[in-house]
Amino acid sequence: QAAAHQAAAHQAAAHQAAAHQAAAHQAAALCDYRWMERTPAATVTLRPARLEDLGVLFEQQREPEANRRANFPARGREAFFTHWTERILGDDTVRVRTIAVDGFISGYVVAWWQDGRRTVGYWLGQDFWGRGIGTRALRSFLDVEKTRPLYADTDVGNVASRRLLERCGFELVETVDTGEVRYDLLILR
Length: 189
Prior knowledge:
The chain has 189 residues and is an alpha+beta fold. The chain contains 6 helices and 7 strands.
């Protein structure tokens, strides 16, 4: 049993190392593509998320401006990988797709069950903002995720995210104030 646990820990460490290497490779490659920042993306595709995507997605969720807009703190490396391997990739009821732009991992779109509601969320690396990528990715995802009603929420200060959802057919249901955070709840019927 100890040997099995040690083998599993070794395999998880190997996956993290491979993911970190993939993130470093993509980050280096992106430096050559900064000129594309405000030009339309040629190709936006969705594909099933893979373990090797996690290094890039981990780095993207650490971007301070993205955390501020989402009103969501970045997770540490171990917490991030555990959350993704157990609660996202390890749950058959979760549908997640990696967003690729011209072959580069730019973020993800995910749907899950929460409190009896099917909910959708997304995260896009800051290098990919402002080019319609999120809207194109969510529209493609909604062709696959057929559950309706479908819910989404966004921090009240994240106007860009709310507009993205509205462009995809979501309508505002209410603004929720928990005392700690205020967010807009939207629905797609």
